[in-house]
Amino acid sequence: MSSNPSLFEPDAVRERFARRAVGEWRYNPLNPAVLAAMQERQRALTALFRELGWLDLSDRRLLEVGCGGGWNLLDLLRLGFRPENLAGIELQEERVETARSHLPGSVQLHAGDALAIADTLPAEHYDIVMQATVFSSLLDDGFQERLAAVMWRRVKPGGGILWYDFTVNNPGNRDVRGVPLKRVRELFPEGRIRARRVTLAPPLARRAVRLHPALYGVLNTVPLLRTHILAWIQK
User: Fold this and answer.
1) Domain chopping of the chain, boundaries
2) What is the Cα–Cα distance from 233 to 59, expressed in whole angstroms?
3) For 175-223, what is each residue's pLDDT tens digit?
4) Strand 192-200 relative to strand 226-234: parallel, antiparallel, unpaired?
5) Tens digit of pLDDT for each residue in 120-172?
6) pLDDT digit string, tens, across residues 98-118
């Protein structure tokens, strides 16, 4: 747990992101390992929507907490969401500007502290409130809990939290920590959770695709080698 009070966690997150190499190859979608993980996650997401019976997404409202450069929102547009029904919150202003350059103007984008901004948005308004590898960057338990509660209040009955994050610690990166499924249940005690393991462990994926891109899929058939969960937490 962070020694800083929850109030200062957004500043700590900014510092952690500043230490990361901008444009690093390991996060670049042209990297075959990154591309394979993205495509796998998209397949799992579309399967989830089919399981929910959501075959037409045009009227679904979605808020992404920690939308970065808007790449997830761009993928959701391709799946059938209308831009006026999408919204994103991002802590870093430069990433919001990147998102604005890629997304239609009717997508609502907010720059700043997700906890403060989300609390100003209408309650029980969104079919989906989404987060992708945000909570693993939050090292303060109290801030995690407050943000989870704010996100939950934004979800309307019958909707849910769409969760994607890794579950194990990265010994090479002390700026993040894994969020196991047990912790997800603690954060959303009122939710009904369905979860699946996805994403071949990135260090292993990078080595595998150097030999052959098809090895990603072969190794990913072993559940124990997957480090992330894609979860639907229904309200």
Assistant:
1) 6-234
2) 20
3) 899 999 999 999 999 999 999 999 999 999 999 999 999 999 999 999 9
4) antiparallel
5) 999 999 999 999 999 999 999 999 999 999 999 999 999 999 999 999 998 87
6) 999 999 999 999 999 999 999
Q: What CATH number has the domain spanning 6-234?
A: 3.40.50.150
With contact defined as beta carbons under 8 Å apart, do 17 and 92 qualify?
A: yes
Can you read off the two tokens belonging to residue 49?
Answer: 């929507």
